């Protein structure tokens, strides 16, 4: 038998632990940096579970509620958003075929459950108010309470304590960490202390250029950087001898984590849940670390690596030390799982009293007694429990029976019964009624209310779609004969729906919906920017890059523009450095304070005027330059030429700065031969280089030095050149790729015949001031960026004559007089800006002028409609006032709701525009154009269900969870927001990274503006095609079978509507 290699055994244990951590991390969602805010489901990793089970997991690990409070659902019932019929239908699966008789009336089980919902009878009892102390039914309360006493026997206190101990033992490690157990038992603040330490270290390590002084040693990774620095702290959290303990921790974070878990004695079967509890203590920071760890090409991750194992190694070290310290001081036991379980089992009386004391549930005299006994060993705890059982417990039992009696009387009133009849009702019947109520607590009401709310909305929406004119649902195989003024393609975003509706009302314009990246998967770099943006859904990847460059006829203006841009950048950098310096702020307050006063005054008192003034100054100093995009792929010769040009610029710089040569002495031959020497990496200098260097009087020693500088400092090597060449070859699209992109986009949206003279590809973005969440208002399909680059790229491809020739061979003919135009709608101001107008043919100027006029009218109408939804607009505004108001919101830095568009999203329609044209969908529906007749293979439908639908579902779930529990799944009030590390938001000076959306985004005061409902997807396609796609894709089975998304289909084959059940069946709609 071969001996086991210890090194391999250690590595296998590390891999096993990494696997457990990965599974534990399923309960937290990835957290994208706020500059590219991505809407997502905060419980996305648990979508393989049914929705209701995931809601329970969210409560277990994060303490979050997944449903609105019953009081708000009851308000929906009062206002008609929910009807009793919907509530009864939602209750149907819970109703038993049982009833009781009270007086002469038969009371079914379902009536009791409905009364619990509609009147809140099962809510936790509270202390009575003064006006409730003398209830008019006092006599009945006494009789009913006495009646219940014969049927309702309370268990002995010792048995109750035994059940509590058993429950807490079962919860330890699954619902409760040892740190939480200590806090709940001894009143310590271990969890808060650990969180404070982790926030401090995460904030410093994960900073992306926001902090003036960066944390040292970050290149070593989070764990090792923390170990080096924390070992220099003096007793963090009161941990004795912390310097020695930290300095002796293992080098590998996996080993340190295993060591701390062993110290806590966590059983193997509880390990995953226990680590999940630790991660969800700070789900924001942990979520960002999870995202960083999975984005290996992210520059900050490559420079400063971080992962969940490193995070947990630090967190659980603090936990093990503090739990050990607390358990030894309070109980004289080891802070281990088995020791704590043994304590609860062997000292149940003491444990019960300690927990009740910390929870504030003991009367004052008993609380004082517990405080005196905290360090006492003996029978004192037993004597206190005996007195407690004879003194307090009987009064608690009486109060419980009286509370039950009041609930029964409230039930009688809800059922329109005289409460007095309860006094004559048999004891067993009263107990049966109370058992029904008790078995349906308020915590179980949420799923029922949610189903009823969804059913009510879905009924109204589907009624709209089904009562539209007959031609909406007819096949309409023939192409249209009347050519429209224009055809416009907008993002599926719900904010596009009102604009499309209003544009169509201005004249014969056709509009289409398509995911805002417009099938152009690109990495994009704007002119003058140093970093790329990823212009596609985050669930996908791109292989093509596009650059924005100045138009060729503006070469004489480009250098002037770049110089002035550099001056502006240098000025901003100087002011920033002066502000962040230790000394200069003292001088700046006196000398430049007035300068900062101007923008404060302007932005506060005259925001619109100040914005126009600063924009004018910016245009005056740095005029805009017309640009185009590098859509076409370069030929191999062009690629080599571009790479050589980049290298030549570097070589010239080195010859000038390091070689001391004037420009006149730097010949092209010298530059090229020196470049080739650096690329080859040979030790011996080439004779051609030596000859070229003679006129410049460069010795071989100097040449070797220059080659070394080029290779080491500027990475001018063959390997680096290969990487650069590969990057350049990714720029642009081949003719085949362009053809495929345009073909896919046009067929997917059904825009394949009767094309107008102008086809507008309209992206969307937003404008706001002082808004860290600005990217949340941009295009989710473009990774939280504006969609302008995608619109411009698709328009340029579609205008390419060679692309059109290839499309014609595929039987997709674009008329020669059709011109594609790119634009972008500002969803805050509703204005549409058009791009690349110099490419519009002179023959289309009249068409363009008409389109611009109608776009302006649609913008005004949309603004008027949106203004009716703002809480601070008390009456309807005329056209001019509406335009002014939305523009003011876009530049007002005190505005917490620059726009309110995405909130209230509820449904996603995939089908022809005929289904929805002319309908006022209130800006609540994602509209994706699709014609099943153009997609016999279902290839396009497959893309829509697994791409845009996923984006819509993430947006929907982000809003859902932010609305139902904004404190846990949202980010709280904007009043307390502080930007941290250029990555996210904290509340106040320190907190977890806040998840989700701000309170002002989803709430109108204390009432949800966003009605939280799961997404309803409506698909116009044959059911058999949809079935095959569901069978093929796991994500679709998760959505529909686990009730994350509701699915309804309009089958073109029989023109009937069907609902898809979680069981996989199609049921015709009544």
UniProtKB/TrEMBL annotation:
Q: Tell me the superkingdom of the source.
A: Bacteria
Named cofactor requirement(s): Zn(2+)
Localization recorded for this chain is: Cell membrane
Keyword Electron transport carried by entry: no
Q: Which GO terms describe its cellular component?
A: plasma membrane
Keywords carried by this UniProt record: Cell membrane, Membrane, Metal-binding, Transport, Zinc
Q: How does it sit in the membrane?
A: Peripheral membrane protein
Looking at the Swiss-Prot or TrEMBL record, what is one Pfam family this protein matches? DabA
Q: Name one GO molecular function term.
A: zinc ion binding
The residues that the entry says bind Zn(2+) are: 491, 493, 764, 779
Q: How does it assemble?
A: Forms a complex with DabB.
Task: Tell me the protein family, please.
Answer: Belongs to the inorganic carbon transporter (TC 9.A.2) DabA family.
What does the protein in this record do? Part of an energy-coupled inorganic carbon pump.
- Write down what this protein is called: Probable inorganic carbon transporter subunit DabA
**Species annotation:** Nitrospira lenta
